[in-house]
Amino acid sequence: MSADPNIDEIVHRHGKAIVSMDIGQIMTDLMPEAMTKLQQAAGGGAAVQIHSYELLGHTRDGEDEVYDVKYIGPQSFTVRARWRRFGSEWKIADADIIARD
After folding, report:
1. How many domains does the chain fold into?
2. Which of 21, 38, 60, 63 has the highest local Cβ count within 10 Å?
3. Which among 94, 2, 3, 93 has a CA at the least distance from the CA of 55?
4. What span, in angstroms and rounded, lies between the C-alpha atoms of 7 and 90?
C-alpha cells in the first residue's frame, strides 16, 4: 500500500481503462513523454488487445509511486509505471515495458 491510498485506486482505474480501451482516460493518465515512450516500445502506437491486468508490485521512490502492472492478452507484457503528482493529479511520468510473455 502506498503512502497515498488514492493512488492505488488511480492505478486500478488506469488498468481498467487499458482493458476497456478508454482512450480519454488513458491520455489523461499519461504525460506526453511517457505516452510516446510506450507507443514506441509497443510497436508504433498500434492498438494492442488486452483482456485483463494484474498488479504485480509497488515501491516508493522519493515522491514517486512505482507500480509493475501485467497486461494480459494474446501478447502479454509488464509495464513499470512511475506515477507522480502534478498539482493535485497523479499521472504516469515515465513507463517502461520490463517483460513480455
Report:
1. 1
2. 38
3. 2
4. 7
Cα angle vertex 38, ends 41, 49, to 5°?
Answer: 85
Instruction: Encode the chain (101 residues) as per-residue pLDDT tens digits.
Output: 455 769 999 999 999 999 999 999 999 999 999 999 988 877 665 667 899 999 999 999 999 999 999 999 999 999 999 999 999 999 999 999 999 98
> Which stretch of DSSP H or E encloses residue 21?
none
Coil vs helix vs strand at 48: coil
Three-state DSSP state, 52 = strand
Task: Determine the structural domain holding residue 92 and report its residue range.
Answer: 5-100
Per-residue cell: 52: 485483463
CATH number for the domain spanning 94: value is 3.10.450.50
